[in-house]
Design goal:
8 strands
């Protein structure tokens, strides 16, 4: 209904419910736009897994409000939209049909009947997905403490990984590139697990790990 999909007793949905809702949506629709409130990443992953497992297309527009989702459905000409609402910790799935309109009564019945065939006959349990970019920042800070240089070298980074290059360049950004005492080049593997350093002037590899 207009209030969305949720358990009438707990007033929320589990990640397992969200997975099955994604599967049902994918069985009925071919292209789906998805948006969500903050604090819904676990349910987002569950819905997306259900849809992708059926080989359907998703536009993930990120954190938004429902009016933005409805607009995105119209602009992409998608078959439907799913909004994951977080109301004081209670998660609801609100589904819109084509052009961003609410589902018709017939669409609701079809969706509900199909969802019942997916729902298991046992109690569900919900795990936890912790999204913590702070751990990456801690890693960057630790690496920056390790990169100390004597003299005034011009530090350069050589890696096939864009993530590694960006991280390394942010760590060495304080190193001057003018009036340097020499050029130190770090070669770092794409996995970030192997590295070496050498002097550009002499070619001497003075550090390897």
């Amino acid at each position: 209904n207009d209030d969305g999909i949720y358990d009438s007793e707990t007033y929320t949905v589990t990640c397992e419910d969200a997975l099955f809702a994604g599967k049902v949506t994918a069985e009925l629709k071919n292209s789906i736009v998805i948006g969500y409130d903050e604090g819904c990443r676990a349910h987002l992953c569950a819905v997306v897994s259900g849809i992708i497992s059926a080989g359907k297309k998703i536009w993930d527009i990120g954190t938004c409000v429902q009016s933005q989702l409805r607009s995105a459905v119209r602009k992409t000409e998608a078959d439907c939209g799913i909004f994951i609402e977080n109301s004081c910790g209670n998660i609801k799935l609100i589904i819109y049909s084509s052009a961003g309109h609410p589902m018709t009564r017939n669409e609701e019945i079809t969706f509900s009947d199909l969802l019942e065939t997916y729902m298991p006959g046992h109690e569900s349990c919900t795990g936890e997905l912790i999204h913590s970019e702070a751990l990456i920042q801690m890693y960057r800070s630790e690496m920056k403490q390790l990169f100390t240089f004597s003299g005034n070298p011009d530090v350069r980074i050589n890696s096939s990984s864009g993530v590694i290059r960006n991280l390394a360049e942010s760590i060495t950004s304080g190193s001057p590139r003018t009036d340097s005492t020499g050029t130190v080049t770090f070669s770092i593997s794409g996995s970030g697990l192997k590295a070496s350093a050498y002097s550009l002037e002499t070619g001497y590899v003075f550090w390897e790990k």
